[in-house]
Specification:
This protein has about 425 residues and is α/β, with parallel strands linked by helices. It folds into 3 domains: about 20-125, Nucleotidyltransferase, domain 5 (2-Layer Sandwich), CATH 3.30.420.140; about 140-255; about 310-320 and about 335-410, no CATH class. It contains 15 helices and 5 strands. A 5-stranded mixed sheet has the order 3-2-1-4-5. Helix 3 links the parallel strand 4 and strand 5. Helix 2 crosses helix 3 (about 85-90) and helix 5 (about 140-170) packs antiparallel against helix 10. The radius of gyration is 39 Å and the shape is flat.
Length: about 425
């Protein structure tokens, strides 16, 4: 019942929100490779639907016409790459462009021509039923275009490597089967020597790098083949194409580096300051004069929280022994390991309960009744407790935490400053 009410309230709150923002000053554009159809509201022009060409002067005419009619937002489908030139011109003119995925509007009824297509885009955009795709800033788009071309160059380089391997296979040269990379130091040195006219396998095998796992004898066997003029010609051209592609990849890397430096120069990174609150007693310095305000502590108790002043009892157990009547300790227990525990309280209890008999102190004061009722059954009956070990281990634990926290702060470029608690 509770889940049903929450779902009903969530549905009502979502129904109150607006589905989309209305765009009364909108236009719809249907793009193609040779012609472009543009539709504006019927009350803006006597001929609200017009046809334009795909040349640059036609794109400029579209922008000028839309600006004259007071259009502020334009919706167009992302068809291939035809939309990019017009999108850039509209964006430079100050118009808001909504780039629509064609799959989102393909099920609209009645779209049987380019004229109806641009009119539907204009209507759906005017009532706020179209969602625009994300397009980054121009600086990001420029670097992205170069990066995509670089990815194509990598694919082309792989094809040229395959052409070299095919030429070697047809001459029964098993060089690329003996070494891992034909484009490495050893592979390129041997291929260059082959193209220069060297045919002696022993002389070619000596060009191998010392890091090659295969022996010179194995490399020499792989370089014994049937040398054919036509395959050597293909090998030469494929190697030249591979080197040219590698040079173009280096040029793309340099251009991307220039764009990256420009972006870093015009980008402002705001790094929020991190406030670390520490106990002044641990750091050993005076607290700040104006400490930050404390957050409100959650006072609501959990369902699994036990009843009684157990927190106060545990705090007292970590400090000195409480004032109570003294009791005589029983027979000291021998040393024995206890099972592994993860909590601080059980770790300290095990440390105190399992102390060797030669380290047992004098008779101590009794513990609170509530604490003994809670943790007494888990302790041996003949082993006294050492309350000071709790405070010792707690202090050591805090010092270790402070040491690790200070090291982490130095790595991130921060310095710990104590604040008043």
């Amino acid at each position: 019942m509770k889940k049903h009410k929450q779902a009903e309230a969530k549905t009502k709150s979502e129904a109150i929100k607006s589905i989309g923002e209305h765009e009364p000053d909108s236009a719809g554009i249907d793009l193609g490779a040779n012609e472009i159809w543009v539709a504006v509201p019927a009350d803006r022009d006597q001929k609200p639907v017009r046809q334009f060409g795909a040349f640059t002067r036609d794109l400029l005419a579209i922008v000028e016409w839309l600006v004259q009619l007071g259009v502020r937002s334009v919706a167009m489908e992302s068809t291939g790459v035809y939309w990019i030139p017009l999108y850039q011109l509209l964006e430079e003119a100050g118009l808001k462009v909504c780039l629509v995925n064609a799959r989102h509007v393909k099920n609209v009824p009645g779209r049987k021509s380019d004229v109806r297509d641009c009119q539907w885009l204009q209507y759906l955009h005017s009532v706020g039923l179209l969602l625009g795709s994300f397009r980054p800033a121009q600086a990001i788009c420029a670097s992205r275009s170069i990066y995509r071309y670089r990815q194509n160059l990598l694919s082309m380089a792989a094809q040229h490597v395959q052409h070299m391997q095919a030429a070697l296979d047809q001459m029964n040269i098993k060089l690329h089967h003996v070494i891992d990379d034909l484009t490495g130091v050893t592979g390129q040195a041997i291929v260059a020597a082959i193209l220069k006219g060297q045919r002696d396998p022993v002389q070619l095998a000596q060009l191998g790098d010392k890091r090659i796992k295969a022996s010179e004898a194995t490399i020499a066997k792989a370089l014994e083949g049937d040398w054919r003029k036509e395959h050597l010609f293909v090998l030469e051209k494929a190697r030249a194409q591979y080197q040219e592609v590698q040079k173009q990849i280096q040029d793309c890397d340099q251009e991307l580096w220039n764009y990256t430096r420009q972006l870093e120069a015009c980008t402002r990174v705001i790094k929020p300051a991190k406030v670390m609150r520490l106990n002044p007693q641990l750091v050993g310095t005076e607290p700040l004069s104006n400490p930050p305000t404390k957050k409100r502590v959650r006072t609501k108790t959990s369902k699994n929280q036990p009843e009684g002043p157990w927190q106060l009892v545990l705090e007292k157990s970590y400090a000195a022994a409480p004032a109570a009547a003294k009791i005589e300790s029983a027979k000291p227990c021998a040393w024995r390991p206890l099972p592994y525990t993860t909590t601080k309280a059980t770790s300290a209890i095990n440390t105190g309960a399992c102390a060797p008999d030669w380290e047992l102190p004098k008779p101590l004061q009794p513990w609170p009744t509530n604490w003994l009722e809670s943790f007494g059954p888990s302790l041996p009956a003949n082993c006294p407790l050492i309350p000071m070990s709790f405070a010792y281990h707690e202090k050591a634990h805090q010092q270790r935490r402070l040491k690790h926290l200070a090291a982490s702060a130095r790595q991130m470029g921060y310095q710990l400053t104590p604040v008043a608690t």
